[in-house]
Specification:
This protein is about 35% helix and about 15% strand. It has seven helices and seven strands; from the N terminus they run H-E-H-E-H-E-H-E-H-E-E-E-H-H.
């Protein structure tokens, strides 16, 4: 039997590597991101509490809230929406109120809510209906569910259960509920009018500051990066 040449072995190894390289999965390029959340996602100016931005509350500027960090990183249009009404009245909330946000056909939907759910009874049922509605309105969109920033175990339990049932990626966030990830009294911020001011209200200061917003965005982006053209 003839001996196999070293050159032939090298060629086989090279060809094998090329096959692996050629079959590499290319991540989906998202174009239109819809983020459904609460004040951490977007909050209109509220002078009564010293908030003058029109983006994720306590981020110093719009570009530093988690929604816009994600939009910039994915080079996609991002639509942040505050649906805290759903959180606070989930058992009677009319999901048809959300219909206008699906007109542009989002291809990635990030759900980042739960902090304002104080009535946890039947939230699991409400959230199931919520997800069913989203899937009906955007059947081809990829979905990511993020947990709460502030501690809320009953809500996170419902979010995780639904994500597991539907095989939707879940992003745990409550480990970020630390002072370093929050804003603080005296923190500088820019209002929607472009003027500089300082955070003066503790309720606002309890929201994630620039560091927290970046960490939220990074954790969500890590999960989004795992999405490929062949599915989850």
């Amino acid at each position: 039997m003839k001996k196999i040449s070293i050159a032939f072995i090298v060629f086989i190894l090279y060809a094998s590597c090329q096959v692996k390289e050629d079959t590499k999965v290319v991540p989906i390029q998202f174009k239109n991101i819809l983020i459904l959340g609460n004040s951490m996602t977007k909050h209109a100016p509220r002078p009564q509490v010293g908030w003058y931005g029109n983006w994720g509350m306590a981020a110093s500027v719009q570009s530093k809230d988690f929604s816009h960090i994600i939009g910039t990183a994915l080079k996609a249009q991002v639509t942040p929406v505050n649906i805290s009404d759903f959180e606070m009245s989930h058992t009677v909330f009319d999901l048809k109120n959300l219909e206008k946000y699906f007109v542009q056909t989002p291809d990635l939907i990030i759900i980042k809510l739960g902090e304002n759910v104080l009535q946890t009874t039947d939230f699991d049922k409400s959230f199931t209906k919520f997800i069913s509605y989203i899937k009906e309105k955007a059947p081809n969109a990829k979905i990511v569910i993020a947990g709460t920033f502030w501690q809320n175990d009953p809500v996170n339990k419902a979010l995780i259960a639904e994500s597991q049932l539907r095989k939707i990626p879940f992003v745990k966030l409550q480990q970020l509920d630390t002072q370093i990830n929050k804003s603080f009294i005296g923190e500088d911020a820019i209002g929607a009018d472009g003027l500089k001011y300082k955070i003066t209200d503790q309720g606002v200061a309890n929201h994630p500051g620039d560091v927290g917003m970046k960490n939220i965005a990074d954790l969500i982006l890590t999960k989004v990066d795992s999405i490929s053209k062949v599915g989850w």
